[in-house]
Amino acid sequence: MEKRDEDLKKAQMLDARARNISHNVRCTECGSQSIEDSQADVAILLRQLIRDEIGAGKTDKEIYSKLEDEFGETVLYAPKFDMQTAALWLTPVLIAGGTAAGIAYSKHRQRTNVHIMALNLIRGVPLTPKERVTILDLLIPPPPPPQGVASRLRRWLNLR
Known about the structure:
Order of helices and strands: HHHHHHH
Oligomer: single chain
Number of helices: 7
Structural class: mainly alpha
Number of strands: 0
Strand content: under 5%
Largest sheet: none
Helix content: 55-70%
């Protein structure tokens, strides 16, 4: 009885392992489905090949390597990072970095153009409404803090 239970558990573990591998392998005929979900003849043969390789004692890595060697890298859902796929992996990072740099540069430029606006104002060149608001924000001092007892107490506590 115990031997039968052990064999059943072992068979279930091997089946779960085969299903896990099958979920990560693309059907070469369907293209958009894993071989686990596909009912194409090729998918059925690949599932059987995976079960045979597991039965032969191969590791998952060895099975993936064999499938990749026979069918190419596109058979795997997660391509490896190498020189051919570097652009695929790095493009989103480069776009996000370029966008962040562009936004930072535009903010920096917006702040540093104040001296140009001041020179234009002296020369008599009319300011755009946006430039006028920027100049007024810089030239008008902020309102003084309230002089109530609570604000004095808050300032006194912050000093200590």
